[in-house]
Specification:
Elements lengths: L5 H13 L26 E7 L17 H7 L4 E3 L5 E3 L2 E8 L2 E6 L13 H12 L14 E8 L2 E6 L6 H4 L10 H7 L13 E7 L3 E6 L13 E7 L2 H9 L5 E2 L7 H6 L3 E4 L2 E10 L9 H10 L2 H7 L6 E2 L22 H10 L7 E5 L3 H17 L3 E5 L2 H10 L5 E6 L5 H9 L16 H11 L4 H18 L2 E8 L2 E4 L2 E2 L15 E2 L1
Parallel strand pairs: 1-10, 1-11, 15-16, 15-17
Antiparallel strand pairs: 2-3, 4-5, 5-7, 6-7, 8-9, 9-10, 11-19, 12-19, 13-17, 13-18, 14-18, 20-21
Helix pairs in contact: 8-10, 13-14, 14-15
């Protein structure tokens, strides 16, 4: 399924950059106005320019990078979905019920099969859940299942989940990695190779993947949802940086790009071939810490860092003003974010004051970053800001799997500047990043456990009453800001270039493109 021959990689990369991908399903890119004219003899092929450095894994339960989601949402269907307004809607679970506050019963969609023909049923769902919960599997989302007491098959298409405590957020976890169903047959067959040969029940089948070059998705002819997917083939060209991806877009070799750099936005807007679409997302760039390692374990030291950073400068210089400065883990306007709460002020004098009260004694602190252009540039600005108040900072760019080993598990660095792709429910975001046992709380597997954080998280998930949940998350944001436990820097936006004759794109708040919806207008 995967070929890694050098000639193959070079052939695909050259084809992309020249805009002449010559497949039987595609009209030559030299005639972009005809590229999507659909006739009985021509299928729809959509080409994506994606800045996705160092993707190593397409196993939804074991991956690391939020950038994996773009393919995960195509290959795997979820038990529960969100609509445009953020409401829960049926997916592979056609309905659900809560007989009591601790019991969730899922009724599964009938007649669905995984790409390899394995039936989708209650046994398959429980297999997935037990795989996530098994500590030997080291699932990235295992922490989301810490509150599950038991699982039970109660019919061929019904699953009963019993929680230890009521949780208003648990259903939301089934909209993301925890709810992406993998084929039990394929997992048993491929073992550790499953992440390179993923088999789901989603709208597309991963036909081929050359890491660092491209992923080819083809229509799942047996997908359960009528009229989807709209395209017959999608090729995701994977680049390590913005510049070559934009060059390919300009050359006519791509039809869609998310995250267009600020300097190229005016070109997109003026283009006769592309539209520019920009909407807010829950994706954020954050600075997090190993709160068990000195001097990052000292609130005064973290407050010094927080006050030393000029978020507005980062937004302007690195993002060209596209997006918003970070106040909370979630963006302004989201229901769980207090509308009157302000981001901590840029105040170098205050930073120096807190530094004088801290454990910091002039040592160099190590910060790991993702090897993404914007993240590296942001880190360099932060390095400059900290230097201005007397903090020495060293930047180490590492790909996701190495970050996982050296920062999240190995405790090697003081902190991290990196992307957080965001989730549609506040509890999942806070728990993952700073909750006791959260997947991105350092050091894994338990992380730093703050009693106040756990208390407020429990309050926020104990009820479905949104007003009561708001109170808990408003208080949690204030606590996190006061202690500078996590420093939100920037909330990213879609910033999409999309070919004018391409339709179906919805800029969902959760920030991941749903490729099944893309097609010809």
């Amino acid at each position: 399924m995967i070929g890694q021959h050098t000639c193959s990689l070079r052939r695909h990369r050259v084809a992309f950059l020249l805009g002449v991908v010559a497949l039987t399903t595609l009209v030559t890119a030299a005639l972009p106005s005809l590229a999507f004219q659909q006739t009985p003899a021509r299928a729809v092929h959509i080409r994506i320019a994606a800045v996705e450095p160092n993707i190593k894994n397409y196993d939804p339960h074991k991956g690391f990078s939020g950038l994996e989601h773009r393919v995960l949402y195509a290959v795997f269907d979820q038990l529960v979905r969100f609509d445009r307004s953020g409401n829960f809607v049926p997916g592979l679970a056609e309905s659900w019920e809560w007989p009591d506050a601790r019991t969730l019963i899922l009724t599964l969609r009938r007649g669905v099969k995984f790409h390899d023909g394995t039936p989708f049923n209650a046994e398959a769902v429980v297999f997935n859940f037990r795989r996530i919960m098994n500590p030997e599997e080291q699932s990235i989302v295992r922490g989301e299942w810490a509150g599950v007491e038991s699982l039970e098959v109660v019919g061929e298409h019904r699953v009963k989940i019993t929680l230890r405590e009521p949780s208003a957020a648990f259903l939301a976890s089934l909209t993301d990695r925890s709810g992406m169903m993998v084929s039990p047959t394929a997992v048993r067959q491929f073992g550790e190779e499953f992440g390179h040969r993923p088999v789901g029940a989603g709208p597309f089948i991963l036909q081929a993947w050359v890491p660092g070059s491209h992923a080819t998705l083809v229509r799942n002819p047996d997908f359960w949802e009528k009229d989807f997917p709209k395209a017959d083939r999608i090729t995701v060209y994977q680049f390590k940086a913005d510049e070559p991806a934009v060059r390919g877009l300009k050359a006519g070799g791509a039809d869609f790009m998310q995250g267009v750099p600020a300097k190229d936005v005016e070109w997109v807007k003026a283009s006769r071939n592309f539209d520019f679409i920009d909407r807010p997302t829950v994706s954020a760039l954050i600075m997090s810490f190993n709160l068990t390692r000195a001097p990052a374990d000292d609130p005064h030291f973290r407050r010094a860092i927080q006050a030393a950073i000029d978020r507005r400068a980062i937004l302007t210089v690195v993002y060209g003003g596209i997006g918003q400065t970070g106040t909370s883990l979630l963006p302004k306007g989201f229901w769980s974010v207090d509308p009157v709460m302000l981001a901590p002020a840029y105040d170098p004098a205050r930073a120096r004051h807190h530094l004088s009260l801290s454990k910091y004694r002039g040592e160099k602190i190590g910060i790991v970053v993702s090897p993404d252009d914007r993240i590296v540039k942001t880190a360099q600005l932060v390095q400059q800001f900290l230097g201005d108040v007397g903090i020495q900072m060293e930047i180490t760019p590492l790909p996701g799997p190495e970050q996982l080993a050296r920062f999240f598990s190995g405790r090697e660095f003081h902190g991290r500047i990196g992307g957080w792709s965001g989730r549609p429910d506040p509890h999942i975001n806070y728990f993952a990043v700073i909750g006791c046992g959260g997947s991105f709380n350092v050091p894994r597997p338990r992380g730093f456990c703050d009693p106040k954080v756990d208390e407020l998280l429990a309050q926020g998930s104990a009820t479905r009453d949104r007003v009561q949940r708001q109170k808990a998350y408003y208080a949690l944001d204030l606590h996190l800001s006061d202690q500078a436990m996590v420093i939100p820097l920037i909330h990213e936006s879609w910033a999409v270039a999309i070919r004018k004759n391409l339709g179906g794109f919805t800029p969902y708040l959760f920030g991941k493109p749903i490729y099944k919806e893309l097609g010809v207008k």
